Amino acid sequence: MPSGRERSGSRNATLGTQSRVDGCGCPGCDGSSGLVVPIASPGLRGVKTVIPDAPSAFLFEQFHDYLTFERGLSEQTVVSYGRDLRRWFSFVEETGATSPGEVDIGTLRKWTYSLKEKGMAPRSIRRAQSAVRTYFRFLSMEGAVEADPTDRLESPQVDKSLPDVLSQLEMEQVLESPDSTHRLYWRDRAILEFLYATGVRVSELVGLRITSVDLEEGFAKVFGKGSKERLVPVGGPALRTLKRYLRDLRPELDQGNGEGRVFLNARGSPIRRKSVWAIVKSAAIRAGMDKAISPHTIRHTFATHLVEGGADLAAVQELLGHADISTTQIYTHLDRAYLREVHQKYHPRQ
What we know:
This protein is mainly α. The protein folds into two domains: 4-152, Tyrosine recombinase, N-terminal domain (DNA polymerase, domain 1, Orthogonal Bundle); 168-346, Intergrase catalytic core (hpI Integrase, Chain A). The protein has 15 helices and six strands. The chain has helices at residues 4-8, 60-70, 75-94, 105-117, 122-142, 168-176, 185-198, 202-206, 236-248, 250-253, 273-286, 295-308, 313-320, 325-328, 336-346, and strands at residues 13-18, 39-40, 47-51, 213-214, 219-223, 229-233. It has a three-stranded antiparallel β-sheet with strand order 1-3-2. A three-stranded antiparallel β-sheet has the order 4-5-6, with no helix packed on it. A hairpin with a 5-residue loop joins strand 5 and strand 6. Helix 6 packs antiparallel against helix 7 and helix 6 (168-176) crosses helix 11 (273-286). The relative contact order is 0.09.
């Protein structure tokens, strides 16, 4: 088999593309480590994350293409993989390894221990390990390594902390909180209603296109992780608010630079994630909430209220766009008062 150097022919390997999301990019690097050099790219799409001195046998460029084209992962996810692999390669480089085949389980365990020594949280370590596991699975498929050393890599235990959720009353207060005299009231109200009605991720909301919304049938087509498409129903209140926004405000905002997106900022461009976070935070403050609330809090609340109402877990999984139902199962552990009520109602020895 030709070597990685012969296959690639280049010592430069792209790990991903950082995009400017919501007006702020991911943490960059000044290149002082010799591993990552931000290279400006045209337009507002950000910079590229590059490992200039990685031996071509590591197939970083091919791995980037695999994540992007074969796996269909989002740009943001590919950048996250690149960030974790950059740190991993920095450690591996210090061992003198010139190919991934020289990395064994001992090296991986020492790398994991080094992350703990640096104070990295267990959840972050597990994420970094996940990136390396995916990378070695790719290398195995390519025949670049004889064995996958990550098969025996232990992950740190993570406390399964329950996500914050709002009660139905609190959620109603948040939905009602936007200032009705503000110019962007109908947009902000529509965003809040849509988040709670559908449980979509903030990335799915900002990417929503007008052509993907069926106002008559009450459905929206969103694209989740890995560009996976799914249909989500839009309930009556959210649908009415969305129609009002599309009829009365969006035409006023649209300056021809909205790219067909549903939600626009005050300058007519597609709204960014950071702005949606600000809208949710502002609504929570106006509603008198004394806890931090994010778009993901509303997503958790959406799922929790469905489960509390008796929704089938498989249906909730489909609505949330979870690939694995084990991710959805956390919602069976949320409301202790609700679980106690169900137990008392249905258990024969109460």
